[in-house]
């Protein structure tokens, strides 16, 4: 009878634990929806006032870009499929490899010193082994060629059904800004939750562990991932915004280029002046169970940045506006010296 009572009590406590966990998860989702929804409302409410001034500042430049687009549209004889592929695949990929090509030279040679002095994890081996870098490059090229290209063909098909992704008229400047903001918020949501999913033991062991081979990442590692992860966590969060919004190819090209450069900066391992801080994601590669998102909004809501916020890396997580590396201006706490105790002869019993 006592055993039955104990079993019943254990079962009810387990059910209560599951229910509490479920309630916590849904509460977190509600908070996320509220914050992101409020952000979207703010953007919609102010896009016609604040961005109107930016549109005026854009002025003749807008006419300039429209003229260039019309000329390009004519040169390609209105071949929208080719235009879409060039704008959404070739242009962003060119930016990605130009940026990371330079960083790879720095990583493999350890020069020039005016770049390496901004390295975040100063204690890690530098320069990086050449073979390791080339192994990452091959994997990234395979992901881009065999996964990104087919996905973009599918994206073009879907967007063509819904509208005209290569319309003759470019969108207005303030509309582009709004779409970029929405794309960023959607990417934050999809990347955060897919990324956390890949940290569950089964998915981590079989899929995500490949990406985390680099505890001190370099820029090109941003796309160094298992094929499943590349599709679900790298491509899908970036694609969903333009597809849902029916974005113009010009906006989509700009968004993809920005997304690739930002993720490269997040992985590059150098906190360079005037560039977004990579401290957040670098800390994720160092500690594994912190800082899952891009913007950090959902990490704050879910408490997955609590340890990060107690570190020197968090203090350095800011835009660097001087030439002094933050590892110098905000140095790590000195490691505690282990004082050796004088050796004493054990007492005789």
Question: How would the blueprint of this fold be written?
Answer:
Blueprint: H1 2-46, H2 50-58, H3 60-75, H4 80-109, H5 113-116, H6 130-162, H7 173-197, H8 201-206, H9 227-245, H10 249-267, H11 279-287, H12 297-302, H13 312-315, H14 326-329
Helix pairs in contact: 1-7, 4-6, 4-10, 6-9, 7-9
Any key phrases for this structure?
single chain, 349 residues, mainly alpha, 14 helices, 66% helix, disordered C terminus, transmembrane helix, membrane, Sterol_Desaturase_Related, PH_domain, transmembrane
Give an overview of the whole structure:
- The chain has 349 residues and is mainly alpha-helical.
- Helix content is 66%, strand content 0%.
- It is built from 14 helices and no strands.
- The chain has helices at 2-46, 50-58, 60-75, 80-109, 113-116, 130-162, 173-197, 201-206, 227-245, 249-267, 279-287, 297-302, 312-315, 326-329.
- The longest helix is centred in the N-terminal third of the chain and has 45 residues, at 2-46.
- The radius of gyration is 25 Å and the shape is globular.
- The model is unreliable at 337-349 (pLDDT under 50).
Question: Brief overview, please?
Answer:
The chain is mainly alpha-helical and 349 residues long. Helix content is 66%, strand content 0%. InterPro entries: Fatty_acid_hydroxylase, PH_domain, Sterol_Desaturase_Related.
Low-pLDDT residue intervals, each spanning 5 or more residues? 337-349
Number of helices: 14
- SSE string: HHHHHHHHHHHHHH
| Inertia-based shape | globular
Q: Percent of residues in helical segments?
A: 55-70%
Instruction: Output mean pLDDT.
Output: 85
Count the beta strands.
0
């Amino acid at each position: 009878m006592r055993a039955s009572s104990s079993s019943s009590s254990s079962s009810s406590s387990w059910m209560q634990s599951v229910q509490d966990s479920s309630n916590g998860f849904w509460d977190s989702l509600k908070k996320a929806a509220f914050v992101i929804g409020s952000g979207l409302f703010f953007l919609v409410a102010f896009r016609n006032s604040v961005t109107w001034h930016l549109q005026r500042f854009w002025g003749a430049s807008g006419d300039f870009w429209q003229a260039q687009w019309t000329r390009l549209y004519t040169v390609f004889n209105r071949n929208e499929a080719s235009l879409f592929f060039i704008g959404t695949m070739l242009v962003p990929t060119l930016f990605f490899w130009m940026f990371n090509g330079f960083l790879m030279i720095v990583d493999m040679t350890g020069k020039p010193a005016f770049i390496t002095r901004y390295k975040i994890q100063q204690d890690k081996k530098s320069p990086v082994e050449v073979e390791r870098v080339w192994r990452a490059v091959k994997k990234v090229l395979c992901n881009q060629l065999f996964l990104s290209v087919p996905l973009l063909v599918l994206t073009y098909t879907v967007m063509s059904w819904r509208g005209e992704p290569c319309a003759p008229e470019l969108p207005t400047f303030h509309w582009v800004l709004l779409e970029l903001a929405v794309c960023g918020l959607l990417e934050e949501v999809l990347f955060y939750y897919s990324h956390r999913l890949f940290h569950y033991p089964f998915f981590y062991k079989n899929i995500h562990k490949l990406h985390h081979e680099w505890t001190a990442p370099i820029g090109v590692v941003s796309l160094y991932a298992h094929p499943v992860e590349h599709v679900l966590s790298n491509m899908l969060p970036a694609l969903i915004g333009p597809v849902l919004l029916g974005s113009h190819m010009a906006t989509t090209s700009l968004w993809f280029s920005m997304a690739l450069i930002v993720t490269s900066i997040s992985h590059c391992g150098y906190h360079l002046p005037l560039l977004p801080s990579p401290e957040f994601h670098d800390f994720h590669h160092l500690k594994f169970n912190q800082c899952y998102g891009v913007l950090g909004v959902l990490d704050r809501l879910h408490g997955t940045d609590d340890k990060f916020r107690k570190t020197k890396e968090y203090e350095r997580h800011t835009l660097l506006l001087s030439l002094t590396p933050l590892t110098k201006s905000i140095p790590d706490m000195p490691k505690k010296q282990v004082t050796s105790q004088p050796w004493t002869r054990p007492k005789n019993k």
